[in-house]
Amino acid sequence: MKKYLTAIGLEAHVQLKTRSKMFCGCSTEYGAEPNTHVCPVCLGYPGVLPVMNEEAIRLTVITGLMIGCQISRYSKFDRKSYFYPDMPKNYQISQYDKPLCAGGSIVINVDGVEKTVDITRIHLEEDVGKNMDFRDASGIDFNRAGIPLMEIVSEPVLTSPEEAYSYLQALKLILLYAGVSNCNLEDGNVRCDVNCSVRPTGQLELGTKTEIKNLNTFKGVLNALKYETNRQIDVVESGGKIQMETRRWDVDAGVTTAMRSKEEAHDYRYFPEPDLMPVAIAEKSIQKWKDELPESPLCRHKRFVADYHIPEYDAGVLVADRLVADFFDAAANVSSNPKAVSNWVMTEVMRLISEKKVCISDACVTPQALAELIELVDKGIINMPAAREVFEIMFRKGGDPKRIVDEKGISQVNDMEVIKRFIEQAIAENPESVSDYHSGKKAAAKFIIGQVMRLSKGKANPLIVTELLEKQLAGRN
């Protein structure tokens, strides 16, 4: 039994996939020159008025629906007051007591064990600017300021760094399936604040928590939590007390360090945003968005296993990319051999996607064509090397697999008399290998099979070749 228990709660900040910012018309495109996607509204000039981005509201509600939240028919925005250079208005427009979504849960899987992680709330706010440090000065890029930012807050029910990592992976997959965010960590689309505490086993009350701010990689969350939980246990066991504080993760040093004390909850002086009307969402709108929801990654995973009888591992690999899962689903649905479809997608399809650096939607091959190609293999019309050759052509140019096989003349040779002649020629040309086989070196047969395949230009059915060669070498007709 563990001597200490860990409690972890995550606050995931997700940039929503909108064309314009939360309260103005500035572009959300990433990578522009600093301070070029700005205007008086997102720079906090006096006298300007915010205008709410309806698409950001829709995407937030869709996220809530995907994870089973209760959607608020009435919510509002508030001013969260704080003074920091990256927030030019000296307050952030956020949501406090009436968020858009409440409750819900996300199912995670760690080492084959499923666990349900409860969600506290999802609220919407505007992002802040990006601090930039140079050798001799510091600056702020306000291109990011005002981008719609969805904050998803979990209950402190995660009990290990590994569970936290699994939770973030599951959350990211849901967001990608829902199409609400690009979830590109390199672009800062997802950032996390992590709260964690430790307590002796048997103690019900949570221990004193620390908060680790602005983690921008999932691996960073994993490693920071591993360090911080061990640090807290060391402090407790040495007779010390955990300080309620905000800490930062030093990637290079592999440690968390104190940033500021957090003895009491910060007074952000929330009050309703006077320049924005409350958000009232019609029931028919919520129902429409609910009807348009995609199948969740978890449901799709379970369906693939149940309907197509593929292993859990295969389903996990396929579901990890929605477009790949769509392709597999369409191909398996028209194939008599879904397991073969799974193998092809996980090997040849994903290999070519990686090599060509393209999306499966950019490839010319169709799910129907892959299913037909697999049928040609199963019927013995072509062998696997020829099938791979055909698939590469279909991937680049499209086309009907049977026609490609006919045009290239690569149909598999199944005629036993023709194959016998190839075997006789291979035996005649390689008497030493035959002698080795009869002296007990069974591996010599593999060499002779290779020679048969060479003579047939790879077209001979290898199963028939193996069967006939064994009979020939054994002296049977």
Keywords:
477 residues, alpha+beta, ten-stranded mixed β-sheet, three-stranded antiparallel β-sheet, 20% strand
Question: What would your notes on this structure say?
Answer:
It is a single chain. The chain has 15 helices and 17 strands. It has helices at 54-66, 161-178, 218-237, 283-291, 297-308, 312-319, 322-333, 338-356, 367-378, 384-397, 401-408, 416-429, 431-438, 444-455, 462-473; strands spanning 4-15, 70-71, 74-75, 78-81, 91-94, 101-102, 105-110, 113-126, 130-133, 138-141, 148-154, 190-200, 210-215, 245-250, 255-261, 271-272, 279-280. The strands form four sheets. Strands 1, 2, 6, 7, 8, 11, 12, 13, 14 and 15 form a ten-stranded mixed β-sheet that branches. Strands 5-4-16 form a three-stranded antiparallel β-sheet, with no helix packed on it. Helix 3 (218-237) links the parallel strand 13 (210-215) and strand 14 (245-250). The N and C termini lie far apart (68 Å). It has 477 residues and is of the alpha+beta class. The mean pLDDT is 92.
